[in-house]
Amino acid sequence: MRGGKRRWPFAGWRVADEAPDKLNLIASNRPGPDAIAMTEDILRRLFGLLDQQQVLILKLRLANHSVPSIVDVTGIPKRTIQRRLKEIRRIWDEADLLDPRTPG
Questions:
Q1: pLDDT over 80 (residue 65)
Q2: Does some domain include residue 93?
Q3: I need a labelling partner for 93 at 20 to 30 A (CA). Which of 44, 71, 84, 86 fits?
Q4: What is the full DSSP assignment across 28-84?
Q5: What is the CATH number of the domain that holds 87?
């Protein structure tokens, strides 16, 4: 899916304006068990597309490490880290695992 906005398998619930019994229903912003399972499956498949170095860099990046911090932790050159992050984005974009027609 290029150029379009991706929709994750869960989105926050909204409070209903009117309920049949005239009470406002309050729904949780937390994803349900099905959404959690689907997200875990997607992440497992996405991480499975990456090599060990990409996984290490991505885990550090997802833990809010900056690129210079990842350089300090791993010893991998800054340009290599930037290139690997770009590769990860490309791999994940091409995989398009959010498309329900994509075989698992």
A1: yes
A2: yes
A3: 71
A4: -SS--HHHHHHHHHHHHHHHHTS-HHHHHHHHHHHTT--HHHHHHHH---HHHHHHH
A5: 1.10.10
